[in-house]
Design goal:
Blueprint: E1 2-3, H1 29-43, E2 47-52, E3 56-58, E4 63-71, E5 78-86, E6 93-98, E7 107-111, E8 122-127, E9 135-145, E10 149-158, E11 163-164, H2 191-200, E12 208-213, E13 221-222, E14 228-229, E15 235-237, E16 248-259, E17 265-271, E18 276-281, E19 287-288, E20 292-297, E21 316-323, E22 330-338
Antiparallel strand pairs: 1-11, 2-10, 3-10, 4-9, 5-8, 5-10, 6-7, 6-9, 12-22, 13-22, 14-21, 15-21, 16-19, 16-20, 16-22, 17-18, 17-21
Helix pairs in contact: 1-2
Length: about 350
């Protein structure tokens, strides 16, 4: 097992170049720090679902499943769900949370009344069945017990790893092999070769960029063939920079929904930076669409707040519209936008 540091190591300092001199002995100071940094990068989890706002009321005794589309990191072994719940009843009640919705362990949590004021979100830890860097659906189900329950927010992130395995999945680096007077050699999970492999397989994605999910019982639907906004307000969106000259980056998105009968409906994502993409829904049973792509502004490293200095407005704003075909209705239950590559 390879330990993961609690803090991000700093491989270089203002005087690091003084350690590099032609003819001088090989130094391990920077290599040890680089190995530690590689373990830190591989051990960090990603934010899969930034807190979204379902504003969904679940009736007493009923269960609702909330669905999200993401691409996970290959080293993650646990997901942490943060769910903010309340009841409109005068007294507290309970809810049952399960993730994944079909096979996860059931955990009963207290739910405070709306009259109680501040409420901290409840935490549910999901053990991942198998590690994989793949596009998947992640789900959480919530059952109201006693009184009805209102779901105010749902978020999910991958738990940081305290240790990594020395294999071709985790790429944990044995730091002892980078110590002073140790030989430099090419090998898996050790010495310079271990550092190279770990850094080459590091995953710098923020992953979750925008998510919205309301479950199957809340019908967000439209039959008119004239597109209209799903949300009252557009959502600010920004992705990471991959090339020095880039001002936009490509993101993936997918829709969970269906059309009421044989026909087609559309959901269109557009941004103030000029990108647009339309997903056509023809399935009559709720399912995820095939993921498609569009471009959004990326980080601007020369800007003090990270946003594009040349853009107006400064935030790239995401607008989502949907439409039926004039006769049949499109029903949308979830929308996910994520960084995939």
């Amino acid at each position: 097992m390879r330990s993961v540091p609690l803090r991000r190591p700093e491989p270089y300092s203002a005087t690091a170049t003084e350690l590099i001199a032609s003819g001088s002995p090989v130094t391990s100071q920077s290599w040890t720090a680089m190995g530690s940094l590689a373990n830190w990068l591989r051990g960090k989890g990603a934010q899969l679902v930034p807190a979204c706002f379902p504003e969904r009321t679940i009736a007493s005794g009923a269960t609702e499943t909330f669905r999200f589309r993401v691409k996970t990191r290959s080293s993650a072994i646990q997901r942490v769900w943060m769910v903010a719940l309340r009841t409109t009843a005068a007294t507290a009640t309970t809810a049952e949370i399960k993730a994944p919705s079909g096979t996860g362990a059931t955990v009963t949590v207290p739910v405070g009344s709306s009259l109680d004021g501040f409420r901290a979100p409840v935490i549910y830890v999901e053990d991942v069945a198998s590690k994989a860097a793949s596009e998947v659906e992640i789900t959480v189900s919530i059952k109201a017990v006693g009184n009805s329950v209102v779901v105010d927010s749902i978020g999910c992130y991958e738990q940081d790893r305290p240790v990594l395995n020395a294999d071709s999945t985790d790429y944990g680096v044995e730091l002892v092999t980078l110590a002073v007077r140790q030989p430099i050699f090419e090998a898996s999970n050790a010495s310079a070769g271990g550092v190279y492999n770990a850094l080459a397989n590091a995953d710098a994605r923020r992953v979750g960029l925008f998510h919205w999910s309301v479950g199957a019982s809340t019908l967000v639907t439209r039959s008119s063939a004239t597109p209209t906004d799903i949300f009252i307000l557009d959502a600010p969106i920004l992705t990471r920079k991959l090339a020095r000259s880039a001002i936009t980056g490509t993101v993936k998105w997918a829709i969970y929904g269906y059309i009421s009968s044989a026909g087609s409906g559309t959901v269109t994502a557009s941004t103030t930076s000029g990108a647009s993409n339309t997903i056509t829904i023809t399935n009559t049973v709720a399912a995820w669409s095939t993921a498609q792509t569009f471009a959004v502004d990326c980080d601007d490293m020369a800007s003090s707040d990270g946003r594009q200095t040349a853009a107006t407005p400064r935030w790239d704003m995401l607008n989502i519209k949907f439409a039926g075909d004039g006769t049949r209705s499109i029903v949308v239950q979830a929308i996910s936008v994520w960084d995939d590559t």
